[in-house]
Structure formats: C-alpha cells, structure tokens
Amino acid sequence: MDEEYLEAVLDLVDAIPPGRAMTYGSVAEVVADAFEARGGRRRGGPRQVGQVLARAGGDVPWWRVVAADGRPPAHHAQAALARWRAEATPLGRDGQRIALRSAIWFPDDDSG
DNA sequence: ACATTGACTAATT
DNA sequence: TAATTAGCCAATG
Asked: Which of A11, A14, A32, A84 lies at a CB distance of 3.0 to 4.6 Å from A89, suitable for a disulfide?
C-alpha cells in the first residue's frame, strides 16, 4: 500500500462529521473512484480500508467507519459505543449498531 | 505462482 | 436476524 492510498483514506475518514458515519465499502468506493478519476487504476477495497485504519491507530476518527450492517469493528466495540454516545450518533434499537438510515454520510453531504 | 489471512460486502436460504 | 457462500484487494511466506 502506497502512501498515496493511505493519505486518501485517512483524509476522507477525517472529513466525516461527528455524529455521522460511512461504511468501509463506501469509503473504498469513493477512494477508488478518486484514483480512477486521476487517471490511475482503481485501488483498494473494503478490506484495505480496514487495514489502513488498523495501522493508523488513534490518529483518525475510526469509530465513524462501520461495516455495512452498522456494526463497529469487533475489537473496539466498547470504545466505539462510547464515542457514538458522546457524539449523539443515531443508533439502532439494540444500541449496538449505528442506524445507517440516518447516520450515513457522503462527501458533499452538507445536511447536518 | 499458490495458499492464507484480514477493522469487508452482497446475495441466498 | 443469522448462517452460508462467493467475490473482492493487498500483504505475507
């Protein structure tokens, strides 16, 4: 993984507003799309996004990136829950996963 | 080149 | 909602 890719992912994750979230797949798609638009080949995928966040440590709001079903990474479920509660992120009925219907965010989404 | 693994996703049952 | 299956991209040995 090049630094270009790392930076692209981290920049995007950094741009997610508090109380909102993106899925791994969405992040991967936006980043890959950007690389393609720049004339390069599409790079990365959902798992690569996970790898990047894992390496990034606490330097990014990783709790705003969740799986497609709204669950946090299993290893940091408790920490993620705490963050969500602190940011008033809309949660599902069981309070264990994000309510993507209302919390999902995309670049240029100014609603919020 | 092949197999394994990983903070994944979509379709099927 | 949960379990299975197949697909995906990149790193590692």
From this structure: A84
* Reported pTM: 0.95
Two tokens, residue A80: 């993620």
Is the pLDDT at A112 greater than 80? The verdict is: no
Give pLDDT tens digits for A44-69: 999 999 999 999 988 999 999 999 99
d(CA A68, C1' B12) / Å: 17
Q: Quick one: DSSP state of residue A85?
A: H
CB count, 10 Å around CB of A43? Answer: 17
Q: Give the CA A67 to C1' C5 distance in Å.
A: 19
